[in-house]
Amino acid sequence: MEKSRIVITGLGLTAPNGNSLEEFRANLLEGRPRIQVIDMRYMGDVPAGVCDFENTRYQKRKELRVGTRAASVAIYCSHEAVLNSGIDWEAVSKDRVGVYLGTTEHGNVETENEIYNIKQFDYDTKFWTHHHNPRTVANNPAGEVTINMGITGPHYTVGAACAAGNAGLIQGMQMLQLGEVDFALAGGVSESIHTFGIFAGFKSQGALAHHEDPNKASRPFDLDRNGIVVSEGGAVYVLERLEDAKARGARIIAEIVGHSINSDASDYVLPNPRQQAVCMQRALWSAGLEASDIDLVSTHATSTPQGDIQECEAIKTVFGNSPTTYVNNAKSFIGHAMGAAGALELAGNLPSFQDGIIHPTINVDKLDPACDLPNLVLNEPKAVGEVNYILNNSFGMLGINSSLIVKRFTD
What we know:
alpha/beta, Peroxisomal Thiolase, Chain A, domain 1, 14 helices, 2 domains
């Protein structure tokens, strides 16, 4: 049985440098990052990517106090995605809507704050909040989206470390192809900057970025890169079967045509370039494409010394003989949004299908020779004429790899 073609018909996002695709894309093309210094508990000043969206647009203040920051991001992005899709939401059968959101972690910030707060009461647990359990169960934040939007179809949060944004999209696509839902809200969200544990963990690994200018702290491929800038954010997509989208006259943004998820099975933290290459090759196979068909590879590169080199090695293995495949990176603008990273980075590149321009990787003053990829777009956008296929990489701890291929929609 031939699988249904799955298309993107809506998108909502919040990033450190934009609360809509238009704003986000403009800042990517104009070379404007937005990283700031925050005062992190127990750690002092650290660079971070902070989102500044209108969180009361779709939630009451009481709901914000009860729920999680990750869910607040998800609710904002989901509503914006539905609006962007142009669908008559009131007419949609909510039991045929699915919510599939990737995340690295959620509830950590709330747990840390609760422990910090009961410290003043000598750790007397009668002061522990009764909201703790729904904040920290694995299906939050997707579950909070269903409550807020009245969705009675299936939902789950996909735990896939920093590959989670792609994984959420893949899950939504597959559920549509199985006929389990008719309409999917899929993508990734992150609240990472609100927990000191992530910053402290990266610092203990020697993988937390530092720079006198926070906007230059995230510098993938640069010889002087020194680690990750932790960020929050989210991107949620509306996915539909092509025939359904056409039937309602939807504007089609792009089509998902290939994907792969695999595992390194080799280390808790260090990536495995051989398995990353296999992941990209299998995504190409699933799409029926050759490496030379891909116009743009959106890299995962996090600005860690070893991680960037490993991914570049994998990309050279797959695309080394493709003179027309360009390469870029969005973390140089917004830092690493963890579970939201893949979904956000894909979003920033989708307008290339219309304008034929590839946004650059910025902050590369001295290119690391080990990261000297052919057609790496650095510091200035590049007009390439036509972009038809984008391969989006997103990799995570415990060796989870994901590659997603999207196509400029044509009948």
